[in-house]
Specification:
60 residues; alpha/beta; three-stranded parallel sheet; 3 strands; globular
Length: 60
């Protein structure tokens, strides 16, 4: 669960299929942990890479 004062970051992708930029984002977001809340937008409504996130404060 994110800390109540966590900063919220919006990430917009054309797709969130597991590929180069999405893989790197997943690595970074998992490393940041609950210090940040992440809101992910995918223009094609595909959120496959979300399965690789440790779910602490992620919303799609």
């Amino acid at each position: 669960m994110p800390h109540p004062s966590s900063r919220v970051l919006l990430h917009a992708f054309s797709t969130f299929k597991l590929a180069g930029p999405q893989t790197r984002f997943v690595q970074l977001a998992n490393a940041f942990g609950p210090r940040y809340r992440h809101v992910i937008a995918a223009m094609d409504n595909c959120f496959d890479a979300g399965q690789c996130l440790f779910h602490h404060g992620f919303r799609t």
